[in-house]
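Can't attach files on this board, so I'm pasting raw text. These are the components:
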Amino acid sequence: DTGVSQNPRHKITKRGQNVTFRCDPISEHNRLYWYRQTLGQGPEFLTYFQNEAQLEKSRLLSDRFSAERPKGSFSTLEIQRTEQGDSAMYLCASSPYGQGLLNQPQHFGDGTRLSIL
Amino acid sequence: QKEVEQDPGPLSVPEGAIVSLNCTYSNSAFQYFMWYRQYSRKGPELLMYTYSSGNKEDGRFTAQVDKSSKYISLFIRDSQPSDSATYLCAMNSGNTGKLIFGQGTTLQVKP
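---
Top answer:
Structure tokens for the assembled complex are below.
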């Protein structure tokens, strides 16, 4: 049973550049979530998908952020024109959802750590 | 005021001690409660998952939920140095996939 996979593990970029992260969920999980975690804080919700539909977005997800899950499998999170405040760990999680599987716990990947120079 | 409050610690205990970790919350709609363990530079790992009020036990771990007080706890018996990590509580209402996390409590178990 492979877990949630995130790539890259660490991304260093200059302010103003665009970055893209990838998340591969557990294969039978149709829900996929993105969170952001800064040092000393718990994860903060960004957005989530059920299959390819984006069901909810946080106010934290400014117009510089976009997430996609085009085929209902892997997802990408893009940040355009990065700012110093975007430095954080970006976590992806997945869970199953459907008949008899309502509100199942979320399983997390090891995250992508973004450092803005 | 945050929806979920958790003392960040750090909490330091000797090996073999019983550890008590707690969270309080303000949203009475929360019905699903989770505890995650997070090691440095790793993602959160699910430890316990409970629905509504009551107790749940899994090995050395016991989770308690008191919805009337809006208070949840995680107890770790016979703590080990390998339990040294950050413990995050999380919860949601079930009407959305969004989890609300506490700040996390850093635990150190000394040999």
